[in-house]
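tool_call: predict_structure(chain=1)
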Amino acid sequence: MRKFINYCKESFVELTKKTTWPSWQKLTGSAILVIVATVVLALILWVIDFAFQSLMTGIYKL
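tool_result:
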């Protein structure tokens, strides 16, 4: 039990004293980048899916 308490204390000190947290502006910029990249990837996958669906529909109608 002593090791667990020591681990919790050390974790708290590391998170509060030793960790460098990003600024709000940097965090917001990163979040916007992730959202934009996700939307672009979703659109690319939708186009590929639509193309394959059209191709398979054309093949099955032969």
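agent: The longest helix spans residues 24-60. Proceeding to next step.
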